[in-house]
């Protein structure tokens, strides 16, 4: 990554995950002088160690328009970052084990269609088995998004960073932001490497974004989480799509080398101040048992590695995207709640449009940082009454 000593830029992006790197790339494409500050290294946390799901399937309805637009970018990824990022398009499937679950999925399809999107469809038992031959006999159908897929998260995040640098952005790794202040129309960011300044600031700091928001006068109820994943020894090829479950916590896919990735949002413990996580082996066992129920031939397959990333979750499980409510020229994109990887390309484009004053065609009201204002007021009242 670039290590230029310049102290100023048109815009400073804080955070070297996929959203920060995508924002830097799109801003550089727009002709701005961009400086990205990352406290560790690009892709160090959630963006580099997630399951790599590239999905519209099952999105919160507020996210569906963004996710659909982002998928268009994923399907032409080499044009954006000069790398296919390991993207494969074998679809994503959410399995139903009962007729009640299948009915719930039908209601889901109707809700997506009601807002104008057609990418999710119901499949019944026979077609489910055609798509996932190894699935357990008791499964009755599922919800499918055929153009979804998966990619390699660390490779993808690095590709965005490299392309941003190629277009003139500066990326400073090992540069922790300790303090943010606004003086005479400039944001001044204090770091161990000195002070950097710009008239515009984009907060893409992930699990550490809450501290920046608080310094801008808008604290948020951000929770730091540690989503866990594990990977098995290689087994004979049996699966192409990414598989989830309706009534269980699961994200399940097989790589070309035969190894199988198992996740689904179960969490360990995170200590963001130390860059550390701890696995919860009892919860990993739950994931393993789910796999054994849905894919009986996986019983006895050896798990060889497990890990947990550090991610930010918001109380409503959707991110903060858009303008600061307190500081003109400041913008937020954080709190992706363990499902932000697929949104990375479009979020960077949206942030660049906002920073450059072009506006956006998307409704960002559901993602506004101000939706937590009432929560903050209540917290202050509780503190004052204590």
Description:
- It is a single chain.
- The chain has 386 residues and is of the alpha+beta class.
- It folds into two domains: 11-50 and 153-221 and 315-385, FAD/NAD(P)-binding domain; 92-146 and 227-308, 2-Layer Sandwich (D-Amino Acid Oxidase, Chain A, domain 2).
- 30% of the residues lie in helices and 24% in strands.
- The protein contains eleven helices and 23 strands.
- It has an eight-stranded mixed beta sheet. Strands 8-2-1-12-23-22 form a six-stranded mixed beta sheet, with helices on both faces.
- Helix 3 packs across helix 10.
Q: How do the strands and helices of this protein lay out in sequence?
A:
Elements: E1 11-14, H1 18-29, E2 34-37, H2 46-49, E3 53-54, H3 64-74, H4 77-81, E4 92-96, H5 99-114, E5 121-124, H6 125-131, E6 141-145, E7 149-150, H7 153-166, E8 170-172, E9 179-183, E10 186-191, E11 194-198, E12 200-203, H8 209-215, E13 223-225, E14 228-232, E15 242-245, E16 251-254, E17 260-263, E18 269-271, E19 276-278, H9 281-294, E20 303-308, E21 311-313, E22 320-323, E23 330-334, H10 344-355, H11 373-385
Parallel strand pairs: 1-2, 1-12, 2-8, 4-15, 12-23
Antiparallel strand pairs: 3-7, 4-6, 5-6, 9-10, 10-11, 13-21, 14-17, 14-20, 15-16, 16-17, 18-19, 22-23
Helix pairs in contact: 1-7, 1-10, 3-10
Tell me what portion of residues adopts beta-strand conformation: 15-25%
Total beta-strand segments: 23
Q: What would you call the shape?
A: globular
Return the average pLDDT rounded to an integer. Answer: 95
Give the helix proportion (percent range).
25-40%
Largest sheet properties: 8 strands, mixed
Number of helices: 11
Structural class: alpha+beta
């Amino acid at each position: 990554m670039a290590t230029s000593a310049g102290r100023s830029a048109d815009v400073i992006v804080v955070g070297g995950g996929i959203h920060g790197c995508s924002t830097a790339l799109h801003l550089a494409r727009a002709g701005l002088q961009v400086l990205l500050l990352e406290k560790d290294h690009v892709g160090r946390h959630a963006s580099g160690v997630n399951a790599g799901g590239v999905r519209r399937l099952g999105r919160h309805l507020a996210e569906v328009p963004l996710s659909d637009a982002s998928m268009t970018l994923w399907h032409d990824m080499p044009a954006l970052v000069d790398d296919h990022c390991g993207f494969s398009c074998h679809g994503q499937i959410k399995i139903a084990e009962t007729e009640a679950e299948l009915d719930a999925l039908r209601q889901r399809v109707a809700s997506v269609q009601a807002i104008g999107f057609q990418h999710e469809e119901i499949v019944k038992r026979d077609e489910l088995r055609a798509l996932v031959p190894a699935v357990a006999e008791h499964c009755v159908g599922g919800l499918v998004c055929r153009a979804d897929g998966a990619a390699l998260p660390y490779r993808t995040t690095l590709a965005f960073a490299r392309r941003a640098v190629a277009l003139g952005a500066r990326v400073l790794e090992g540069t922790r932001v300790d303090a943010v202040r606004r003086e005479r129309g400039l944001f001044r960011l204090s770091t161990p490497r000195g002070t950097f300044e710009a008239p515009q600031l984009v907060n893409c700091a992930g699990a550490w974004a809450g501290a920046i928001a608080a310094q801008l006068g808008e604290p948020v109820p951000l929770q730091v989480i540690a989503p866990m994943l594990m990977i098995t020894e290689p087994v004979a090829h049996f699966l192409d799509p990414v598989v989830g479950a309706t009534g269980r916590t699961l994200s399940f896919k097989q790589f070309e080398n035969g190894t199988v990735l198992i996740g689904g949002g179960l969490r360990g413990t995170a200590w963001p101040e130390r860059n550390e996580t701890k696995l919860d082996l009892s919860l990993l066992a739950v994931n393993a048992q789910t796999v054994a129920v849905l894919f009986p031939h996986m019983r006895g397959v050896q798990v060889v590695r497990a890990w947990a990333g550090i991610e930010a979750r918001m109380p409503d499980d959707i991110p903060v995207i858009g303008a600061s409510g307190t500081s003109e020229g400041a913008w937020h994109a954080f709190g992706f709640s363990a499902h932000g990887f697929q949104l990375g390309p479009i979020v960077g484009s949206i942030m660049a449009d906002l920073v450059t004053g072009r506006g956006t065609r998307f409704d960002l009201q559901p993602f506004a940082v101000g939706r937590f204002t009432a929560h903050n007021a209540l917290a202050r009242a509780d503190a004052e009454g204590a």
